[in-house]
Amino acid sequence: MAVVLDARGLNKRFGAVTAASNINAAIEQDSVVGLIGTNGAGKTTFINMITGYIKPDTGGIFYQGRDITALSPREITRVGICRSFQIPQLYSSLSVFEHMMVGLGVVLHNAGLGGYFSRGQPNVPGHDAPAPEVAERILERFGLADYRDKNAQVLPGGVRKLLDIALTMVAKPTILLLDEPTSGVSAEEKFGIMEMVMTAVKAEGATVLFVEHDMEVVSRFAQRVIAFYDGRIIADAAPEIALTDPEVKRYVVGGALHRLDEQQGAPNA
Amino acid sequence: MSRDRTLPILGAVLLSVVLAGPLLPQWALFLLTIAIAKGLVALGLMLLLRAGLVSFGQALYYCAGAYAAGSLGRFFDISDMLVQMLTGAAAAALLAYILGFLLARYRGIFFGLLSLSLSMILYGLLVKSEALGSTDGVNVLPSTVLGIRPSQEWLRYVVVVVGGGVALLATALVYRYLRTPQGQLAPAIKDNEIRVEYMGTSVRSAIHVLYVIAAALSGIGGALAATTVGHIDPDMAYWTTSGEFIFITILAGTGSVVAPFLGAMIFGIIHTVAYDLSPNTWQLTLGTTLLLVIVFLPEGLWSLFSRRKGA
Amino acid sequence: MDQIPAVIVDGIFYSAWLFVAAVGMTLIYGVMKIVNLTHGSFYALGAYAAASLTGAWLAKGYPPMLSYAVLLGSAVLISVVVAPPIERGILRFMYAKDEVVILLITYALFLILEDVIKLIWGVDPYFIAEPYGLLGSFDVGDLSYPTYNLILVGIAIIAGVGLTLLLRGTRTGKLLLTVIHDPEVSRAMGINVDRFYLVTFTFGSMLAAIGGAFTAPTVSVVPGIGVEVVVLSFAVVVIGGLGSLPGAALGAVIVGLVRSAAIHYAPAVELFVIYFVMALVLAFRPRGLFSLAEPRKI
Fold it and tell me: For residue C191, what is the enclosing H or E element?
């Protein structure tokens, strides 16, 4: 499988704190990678560097062979790497449908379509349909159709999460970075939401990296797990191996997940 | 924005002004023209407000437009209304394009204060400028249109019709812009700039564009005011003038491109009535009205007409 | 150049006036996080109250040397009467709103007060020149200055030093610093934040009123004298940093000296140079030259 995202030798310090220490990770096309680690371990720093929010002190990030280390978040999104947020970043005065329309509008604008002198409703690049139709389609896929006209502020937690992730889909990303997709979501909903997200995302053929604290979600959905601790990567393997690694168990998972020890053979249903 | 009814409404209003105009007294025509001029400035302010920015110095562009128009007469003997308004728009837009590189980086109070200081710089420059009449200002030549000089009795009518027509055109262009993808970013920018950047577009660019549009509108308004009043002076750039424009915008609300003109009209009426009744209490009336609107009708008067959430 | 002493002396006098006029605004912003346009109103109220009361004092034949105390007293009186109702009656309910909205509210109040002043005192100018000339003059080189101007310098120094001592040295001052940093946490700790706001607003307005009162003998007191003060105070406060006391002093000195230099060497730029400096500072250091360190809350 081709390597679509390649992080090489990333180092980042904030004063006395080492947030990233020689981070190397080559992500393959179409893979699903879980990023785990305690708070402050460096997962979010990793994502922030990929998305251009912060720049590494040394090292480089390559996307489809191209050096994207110095690009801004806006440019990173435009090349095809989109991210969702731990705390859903929504527009408090807009409805769910309007959220999608604004996002699709940006895609149109970037492609030079739908501008001042254009007539009618052009097709959104990558989706082959006009914006309102694409919006409905994406909402449908994420189970948000019923909330179409509701204002973002009145949405329940899980729905807000879904909307935040749905927004990342408008630009048809090649790589999707999901920052704690199930955090703030009730226990019963977690799997349902993750299931919905993964189905929708895989249908678009995207590569996914997701940060998670819930190890059951990780073992269920990830094909590969990268574990962070103290700015370093301490494990990078299939879930059943990574999650039972002694260092990982010690610094990340804790002793509680004895179930995984017992189910050695079949974590991914 | 009201769906599709907006432009026909404006067109209908202009039509009624054209038809009824000859019957209206001179002071009413004057009031109407000033309302159109100030309404244009308020429209510009409204665009910025929708993106979450309050300009405390919009008078900079109003004054620039006015002085551009006045200078055409003083130095080049040009008194054509259309040339004046076009020049006013261009001068203001150019200035805003340059200043926009700086201002589009700021938000909230700092945006306000920086825009304020820029307008006060113009004020200071004009007061000391002998060539432009310093504090006395400059008289503006009586308006002509396309080479025709209207007679005294028809002058105000012609001015309001031409001014109204230009305003309608400008508003229609703005309305069209607000329907483009970039034009619809303002509420999103106001709510969550970071998210907008992560969707893949430049917030600074979008704001820069809005800033230039707002300035151009203010420049047209200033030129129209100059030609109507027949006089320009540095007070047009003073911070209290900017305050008036803000008042009108708050009064009107951001619900529609029609709202600023309604707000300007009402402001004009309040000013005239209150000032006539008692010149020493009209600021009191203004201040009280502003307070009441902010507290009880934060979406402005337009929210009374439209129960729908403004887009 | 032989103009330099004059530039400096003029600069100092103007700086002192600016500091007294503007320090109240930065104090109120620092504590309450509001940009307060009624600042100009209190300046005007101070001037008018001083004109009336001192005028009456002198007319009654009371000792002219005590008129300075009357100037001070009228400023204190008018602010204690007008400020609390504004804060308790109107502003208190608005603190939850956006800071730009609060600014607009104070703007509305400013407009209202402008006319209230006209209703009470009329539109004709008031003159109380006597305290101005009473102290004679002093010479710097071959230039003569009214000794009165030193009073304003004195007030500026007392205000500056006094406020600094208050904030650093007293228990109240330290409580005020916690309120400045985080009103919510302060409230949770049992500090009466509402009372601090009331006192700060009154005291800050009082400083503006004092500025107006002591300016009254040097000008004709007319409607609208507060209008320019508002925007000049903005300039001073922004240059120094909103909420910073040493910043206000620095801002006052910079603006005062720059203006003085402009008047003497390049009169054409006098008016705009101040706002030019303001714009420059905003462009490069928007938080001012002495910005309060903003702790990252995220």
Answer: none
Query: How do A3-14 and C143-146 pair as beta strands?
Result: unpaired
Tally of structural domains, chain C: 1
Answer yes or no: do B184 and A94 touch at CB < 8 A.
no
B187–A167 CB contact, under 8 Å: no
Angle at C97 (CA atoms; ends C91, C99), nearest 5 degrees = 90
Name the residue range of residue B221's domain. Answer: 6-239
Closest CA to B88 of B210, B234, B227: B227
Mean pLDDT of the residues in chain B = 89
Residue C251 lies in a domain: no
What subunits touch chain C, counting only 3 or more CB pairs under 8 A? B
Decide if pLDDT at B66 tops 90.
Answer: yes
Task: Identify the band that residue B203 occupies on the pLDDT scale cut at 50, 70 and 90.
Answer: very high
Going by C-beta distance under 8 Å and a sequence separation of 6 or more, which residues neighbour residue B185?
A: A102, A105, A106, B51, B196, B201, B203, B206
Residue boundaries of the structural domains of chain A: 1-80+174-184+208-263, 87-171
Residues C21-66 pLDDT 10s: 899 999 999 889 899 999 999 999 999 999 999 888 888 888 877 8
Task: Give the largest CA-CA distance in chain C.
Answer: 64
Written as one string, the DSSP assignment of A172-193 is --SEEEEESTTTTS-HHHHHHH
What pairs with residue A228 in β-bridges? A233
Q: Is B201 touching A (CB cutoff 8 A)?
A: yes
- The β-bridge partners of B138 are B232
Domain extent for C34: 23-225
- Secondary structure of residue B148 in the 3-state scheme: strand
Q: Determine, yes or no, domain membership for B304.
A: no
Asked if residue B290 is part of any domain, the answer here is no
For residue B206, give every residue at least 6 positions away whose Cβ sits within 8 Å of its Cβ, in sequence order, or none. Answer: B51, B182, B185, B186, B189, B196
If we measure between CA atoms, which residue out of C4, C11, C36, C15 comes closest to residue C113? Answer: C36
What are the backbone dihedrals phi and psi of residue A24, each rounded to the nearest 5 degrees, phi first?
-125, 130
Split into its structural domains, chain B has a count of 1
Q: Which of B184, B194, B200 faces A78 most closely, judged by CB atoms?
A: B200
In a domain, B263, yes or no: no
H helix or E strand, kind and range, residue C146? strand C143-146
CA C74 – CA C56 distance, rounded (Å): 12
Between CA B21 and CA B33, with CA B27 as vertex, the angle to 5 degrees is 65
pTM of the model: 0.89
Q: Cα(C220)–Cα(B310) distance, rounded to whole angstroms? A: 49
Q: Looking at the partner chain, which of C111, C282, C283 has a beta carbon nearest the beta carbon of B286?
A: C111
For A1-80+174-184+208-263, CATH gives: 3.40.50.300
Contact B114, C282 (CB under 8 A): yes
Residues of chain A with pLDDT under 70: 254-269
ipTM confidence score: 0.87
**Residue A106 contacts B where some CB pair is shorter than 8 Å:** yes
CA dist., res. A23 & res. C204, Å (int): 55
Residue C136 forms part of a structural domain: yes
The fold adopted by the segment(s) A87-171 is: Rossmann fold (3.40.50)
User: What is the per-residue pLDDT for C287?
Assistant: 80
As a whole number of angstroms, the distance between CA C205 and CA C44 comes to: 11
